[in-house]
Amino acid sequence: MKIYVCVKHVPDSAATITIKDQNRIDENITFLLNPYDEHAVTEAARLQKELPGVEVIAVCLAKPAAENTLRSAMAMGADRSILITTDQDPDSLITARAVKAAIEGDGRPSLILGGKESIDAEGMQTLFRLARLFSMPVATNVVQITVEDAHAVVECEKEAGARDVLKLGLPCVLGAGRGLNTPRYPTLPDIMKARKKEIRQIPLESLHFEKPAGAMEILELTPSVDTREPKELTGDPDAVADQLVRILRDEAKVV
Amino acid sequence: MEKIGLFIEFKDGGIKPAVFGMITGARGEGGDLSALVVNRDPADCEKELGEYGVDRIIGITAAGGGWHPDLWADALVQAMAAFGIQTLLGVTSPQGRDILPRVAAQLDAPLLMDCLEVDLETHVARTTRYSGKTVAAVRLTGTQRIYGVRANAVPAAPSPSEPSVETFTPAETELPDLTVLETTPGRGDAVDLAEADVILSGGRGMKNGENFKILFDCARTMNAAVGSSRVAVDEGWVPYAMQVGQTGTKVNPKVYIACGISGSIQHFAGMKSSDIIIAINADPNAAIISKSDYYAVMDLFEVVPRLTKRLEEDRR
Question: What ipTM was estimated for this complex?
Fold first, then answer.
């Protein structure tokens, strides 16, 4: 049984983003494994312990520098990796096609996991497109997975307190939510072992797929400017409470 | 005139308030607006939707009658084809996150989620990227496109119309093997974090889970929602559904009151678009203070109960 985990190489959320060429960013910053994907890798590693004969393969479409991100995924439990290399920033229509072609060239998936979204683009759609291309069922923001013979029963978190319990035939695609598990951060031996694991590189151009009719093109990036001028509320707690009421009532008009 | 479809979401039997802001935003360009209502009697929402200026309400009967993400997405796709709709808008809510990508995948059409603004003529929409640090202008090309609009991005403004009411029943199609075993609705009394006008959020300064009661008590006096920072979730004080931030819910209320929250970049990424940010923190060096509109360097346990009391007095 093969579990493919789709992972993304993303800028650290604490990194300073500098815009260049109008619609790109300076990539000379720390990149890491997308935090939601950590939950997906952790879950794949858990299933490997539970079920017989599971191989976990991480798949990533990115620049060659993403090798580090794949090493992290392998230190967290993936057995080997496939890195589809490109120097472009493909949108999710292209990404889903490329990942599908790479998986098909590698083996037969029983389960495909990934984070429910990436923290850089926050597109929330690549796994749905991948599922459609494979004609597999898909669920997102999954917080519990039980794999039975020919299907998976999953719990998906919706708004506060709301949940769906879904039964999906295998193979299926599942988008990990933060409530799924607590990622186990790798130990030094895990990291050492991951250095010896295989990363197969496939250039994007060598994969064959039909070009999508539509696309998402980033025309321009602008820095979010913050123009707030903090004003201190002073006095004793009663005075502060009075000022808060005034702000809520007169300025925001919410009470 | 371009035909625009609007996916109408419901909560507790009524239309979700965020839907009206979405309609207001879509109305500007003089397009032809069709409200798509799945498995509800369209006549029931005629008055409310008419108030915000839709031209047509299409009542869609998806098989099974209840909630099913694939049946609903397929029903929307078929209704779009039947009524010549090339553009679909929905709210980036939990249901929107489940259904809009399914529609986009089925149509193989571009989709942009969490839009702050959508220009329906040029097909260029704006959304944040890189943890809220940049705003991206993104063009959607192709014959069809889908937009997920951020709740509260556009304030709702009425513009009465007299919509026609039509019904549509999709043909049966073969769908992926997915069964909804159970669907639990959210708590009716809880105000949705993503759509609340006021949010009171607690962080490390709350000290434990029980203390969140003072935030809930205060929230009740003004129909506010209660959120938290990641620390409070990681400590097990509150459930993940309450987390505001990069890896939690992204919110843009009119007022965000951060109580005992230091204000990490990741937390800020989830609430920076709030109209007014108020920080209550005993630590004068907390990062949140420099990113706020108003701040009080004070023990939150001194301030919040007094605020609750004042608001209660006002209500009487």
Answer: 0.94
